[in-house]
């Protein structure tokens, strides 16, 4: 990195470095995880999720129970269809002529097929919006790798340009639905306790997110030229803690309701000897019950929609834990297709477009707004080098995109 680039990084690493100039995009790509849509899809889907790990079908069948219990159907695909339709409607209402394409990482419609279809339809410059808001390998870099690999595999590298909007964990459009939901959840649990004759019993708020390996958590946000130290040594953890604090402050200020809170994790998978972020939400609920807490408000702060890990891990397992302990409990909605969330996503698109440009980049925490262009080595992939998009081997502060084609030079930094 040159002295000039180092100076640019030090001046304002959050609001200036890594910001790209607006472009004339001709399509938007909604990229997501994907999920099975029938019992016969479950094992093929799980093979996709675990590809390269050599896990036998017998083991996959053992962990398929939450899909099997719901007819083999994950809610995520239908939720993405609804989000796609909502985005299209809002873009149309604003007079923005951008088609919304949809591609998944692990199930149809697959990202490579979507990109090939986009190119065949005449699109040449696509802006990607993902259904993951926070910074870590699986929430950001893996999507950037998905696109890089897809462009390479389809031969579209250098022919189809794909950029990505910033991680939007603290964009008001994502946070506002949680503010509304948390206030409503506190009121609901307080009403349940009052009906049970214990109106002043203690309530605790659990902000829940997906657990990840601690090694990935420690790598989240760590990159060349990043001057900040993150709380608990991880951008992933720090972003959740900052968001939760912002939600609590807003709820208390607007409704007068409040309660002690903590960040908990769910959906742990992988080998037992590999450390993941803790505490698990069910362990936390049991500990709180033993401490005399009588009411629990679960806020799925890490999730965009009510997909399987919300429906099963929270609505089924966590709520059962609360019921077994005799705790009054509720689960706050995810943003889904909440009007403020959809508006916020379209605002994120407009941050990057020439027409209908929004130059202001709001953020409800001091950690944002996050970068358009990820810094070298950010959220490192410990599993091997892969081509990526939306990354750079130098800090970008001028709006210039050093990698206008599909594959960036970022993998050279790994």
TrEMBL record:
<feature type="binding site">
    <location>
        <position position="210"/>
    </location>
    <ligand>
        <name>Fe(2+)</name>
    </ligand>
</feature>
<keyword id="KW-0627">Porphyrin biosynthesis</keyword>
<comment type="function">
    <text>Involved in coproporphyrin-dependent heme b biosynthesis. Catalyzes the insertion of ferrous iron into coproporphyrin III to form Fe-coproporphyrin III.</text>
</comment>
<keyword id="KW-0963">Cytoplasm</keyword>
<feature type="binding site">
    <location>
        <position position="143"/>
    </location>
    <ligand>
        <name>Fe-coproporphyrin III</name>
    </ligand>
</feature>
<dbReference type="Pfam" id="PF00762">
    <property type="entry name" value="Ferrochelatase"/>
</dbReference>
<protein>
    <recommendedName>
        <fullName>Coproporphyrin III ferrochelatase</fullName>
        <ecNumber>4.99.1.9</ecNumber>
    </recommendedName>
</protein>
<comment type="similarity">
    <text>Belongs to the ferrochelatase family.</text>
</comment>
<feature type="compositionally biased region" description="Polar residues">
    <location>
        <begin position="405"/>
        <end position="414"/>
    </location>
</feature>
<keyword id="KW-0408">Iron</keyword>
<feature type="binding site">
    <location>
        <position position="309"/>
    </location>
    <ligand>
        <name>Fe(2+)</name>
    </ligand>
</feature>
<feature type="region of interest" description="Disordered">
    <location>
        <begin position="391"/>
        <end position="414"/>
    </location>
</feature>
<feature type="binding site">
    <location>
        <position position="74"/>
    </location>
    <ligand>
        <name>Fe-coproporphyrin III</name>
    </ligand>
</feature>
<keyword id="KW-0456">Lyase</keyword>
<comment type="pathway">
    <text>Porphyrin-containing compound metabolism; protoheme biosynthesis.</text>
</comment>
<dbReference type="InterPro" id="IPR033659">
    <property type="entry name" value="Ferrochelatase_N"/>
</dbReference>
<dbReference type="InterPro" id="IPR001015">
    <property type="entry name" value="Ferrochelatase"/>
</dbReference>
<keyword id="KW-0479">Metal-binding</keyword>
<dbReference type="InterPro" id="IPR033644">
    <property type="entry name" value="Ferrochelatase_C"/>
</dbReference>
<keyword id="KW-0350">Heme biosynthesis</keyword>
């Amino acid at each position: 990195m040159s002295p000039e680039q180092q100076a640019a990084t030090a001046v304002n690493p959050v609001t200036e470095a890594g910001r790209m100039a607006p472009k004339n995009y001709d399509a938007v790509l909604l990229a997501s995880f994907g999920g099975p849509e029938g019992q016969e899809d479950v094992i093929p889907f799980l093979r996709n999720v675990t590809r390269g790990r050599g896990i036998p079908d017998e083991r996959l069948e053992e962990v398929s129970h939450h899909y099997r219990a719901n007819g083999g159907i994950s809610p995520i695909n239908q939720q993405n269809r609804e989000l796609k339709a909502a985005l299209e409607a809002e873009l149309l209402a604003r007079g923005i002529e951008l088609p919304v394409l949809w591609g998944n990482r692990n199930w149809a419609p697959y990202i490579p097929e979507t990109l090939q279809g986009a190119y065949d339809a005449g699109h040449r410059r696509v802006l990607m919006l993902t259904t993951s808001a926070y910074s870590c390998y699986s929430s950001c870099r893996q999507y950037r790798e998905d696109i890089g690999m897809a462009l390479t595999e389809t031969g579209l590298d250098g022919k189809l340009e794909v950029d990505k909007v910033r991680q939007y964990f603290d964009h008001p459009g994502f946070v506002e639905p949680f503010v509304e939901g948390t206030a409503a959840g506190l009121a609901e649990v307080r009403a349940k306790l009052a009906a049970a004759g214990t109106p002043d019993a203690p309530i605790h708020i659990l902000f829940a997110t997906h657990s990840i390996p601690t090694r990935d958590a420690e790598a989240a946000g760590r990159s060349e030229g990043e001057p900040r130290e993150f709380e608990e040594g991880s951008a992933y953890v720090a972003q959740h803690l900052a968001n939760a604090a912002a939600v609590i402050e807003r709820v208390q200020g607007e409704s007068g309701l409040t309660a002690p809170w903590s960040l908990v994790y769910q959906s742990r998978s992988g080998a037992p000897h590999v450390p993941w972020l803790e505490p698990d939400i069910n362990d936390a609920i049991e500990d709180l019950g033993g401490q005399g807490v009588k009411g629990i408000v679960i806020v799925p702060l890490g999730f965009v929609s009510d997909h399987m890990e919300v429906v099963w891990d929270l609505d089924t397992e966590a709520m059962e834990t609360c019921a077994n302990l005799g705790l009054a409990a509720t689960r706050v909605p995810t943003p889904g297709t909440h009007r403020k969330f959809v508006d916020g996503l379209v605002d994120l698109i407009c941050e990057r477009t020439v027409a209908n440009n929004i130059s202001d980049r709001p953020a409800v925490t001091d950690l944002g707004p996050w970068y358009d262009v990820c810094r070298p080595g950010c959220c490192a992939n410990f599993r091997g080098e892969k081509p990526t998009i939306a990354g750079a081997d130098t800090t970008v502060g001028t709006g210039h995109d050093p990698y206008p084609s599909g594959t960036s030079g970022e993998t050279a930094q790994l």
